Amino acid sequence: MRPLVLVHGFMGGSGQWALQQPLGDDRRLIAVDLPGFGQNAAMAPLPDIPAYAAWVLDEVTRQGIDRFDLLGHSMGGMIVQDMVRQAPDRVARLVLYSTGAKGLLPGRFEPIETSMQRARDDGAAATARRIAATWFLQGDAAAQFPDCAAIAERSSLAAILAGLGAMRDWSGENHLAAIGVPTLVLWGDGDRTYPWAQIERLWRTIPGASLAVLPGCAHAVHMERPGLFNRLVSDFLSDGSSTG
């Protein structure tokens, strides 16, 4: 089977995909750490979503992979949309998970500008824990919150501000209809970051896109309902396992 490239979201890292290891039973998993985040927290963050997309493409090439399946979460979902735009022939199947095509994030739990100011006022660590709590239906009482927050806390203030600015200034709306690969749009119905309008826009505009709405979870579906998440992703990718 083709390799699956996993692109984490804002203040995320490759360690947040630990519960997705079963997806690697029959395929190679490549979980990147974006510059400024996770295990690459010491690297300088990049200025915009296209730059992150180009970086991931270069990283995948460096690992000797030409054609692959692609999954992006949250900000990572914006990045993978831009990867398809930059290199459409390299992506076989696409999963857009808890993400959208509009970087201003209308309906988010708070405006991006508010998050940026609060990050300056409160500092990186407090911001990481506060925002990470919004990703779970049970907030900081969720079982996976401590591990998730620990990864988020690696992000510097510069990386937090750069990531928020990159999302704010990006839009992929004009490119949705040109996405020509089989696409699964996956979302938790309690998501406080990307409301239904963003998800519906992806689903209705990307040609032939499939939709999976998972009940009783929020922005971190892959941690809250990992078994169901993994089955949905595996079934979707397996549908195209016999093609190039």
UniProtKB/TrEMBL annotation:
GO MF term set: hydrolase activity
Residue stretches making up the AB hydrolase-1 domain: 4-231
A Pfam family: Abhydrolase_6
InterPro entries attached to this UniProt entry: AB_hydrolase_1 (IPR000073), AB_hydrolase_sf (IPR050266)
Keywords: Hydrolase
Keyword Hydrolase set for record: yes
Signal peptide: none
Protein name, as recorded: Alpha/beta fold hydrolase
Organism: Thalassococcus arenae
